[in-house]
Amino acid sequence: MKTVKEVASFTGVSVRTLHYYDEIGLLPPTYVNEKGYRFYDEKALQRLEQILFFKEFDIPLKQIANILDNPHFDKQKILQEQKKILLLKRKRYDDMLLLVERLLKGESSMAFEIFSKQEIEQMYTSMLSNLQQEQKEAILEQFSDWESFQNFFFEMAGNEKAQSNFQKMVQWYGDKQKVMEIVQNPNQSAIVKAYGNRMTEIYQKFADCKEKNPGSFSVKELVGEYEFVAKQLYQVEQIKPILLATAKLYQKNEKVRAVIDKKTKKGTALFIAEAIEYFYNEK
Is 70 exceeded by the pLDDT of residue 117? Predict the structure, then answer.
């Protein structure tokens, strides 16, 4: 048995951290004496070693607990999954280093290609083939026709004139591989339909507020709700660029505006666009 101070001394983990691990049930001591002193046996130390190992991969403590408490815990499988993540991160850092080197040489950042034209076409084709009927209907409800959706898709993620947008997408989603996976394998239709219904409710709320100042607190609060739902729907970390692009789409594309206005009332789509821009101080 080792005391909490002895464990802290040879592992480098602070006493305070060990106490916290005990509080959250991640690493309870093997024995606590009548004075409240904690003691750890060899099995507890092995568990601490595994905790520290998974922490190196930035895995949240709650997830580490779930992994270690799983009776079917397969360390080899976890290692293989983490290896894939590390390889993806290394590829991302290599790409970013290449960008920095090109910028230092005075080359345009537009020359830095995150996704090739072929990869973008592959993403779009795979996504279409994986769409459920409900998802197709949801897209057509928002974009009116496939040409409008395709133009929006390539404007945001795919044409050769928008390589800078590729970099933004990788930032939004975390890494290149995640972007590919999310785009090629859309959410389950039931989930998309549920979020679609929530979006329709939000559109109606915008319509009801259409006579208000788009920069007013109540309208900004509504944009905040729209932002939250959109972030969950698109599964991105940075939703601002997508919503601002959506605002531009509403302003430029009459067909798309007509779809939103038909669900609510005339002028709603433009009001949403203006409210988004006020929300992000783009006005």
Answer: no
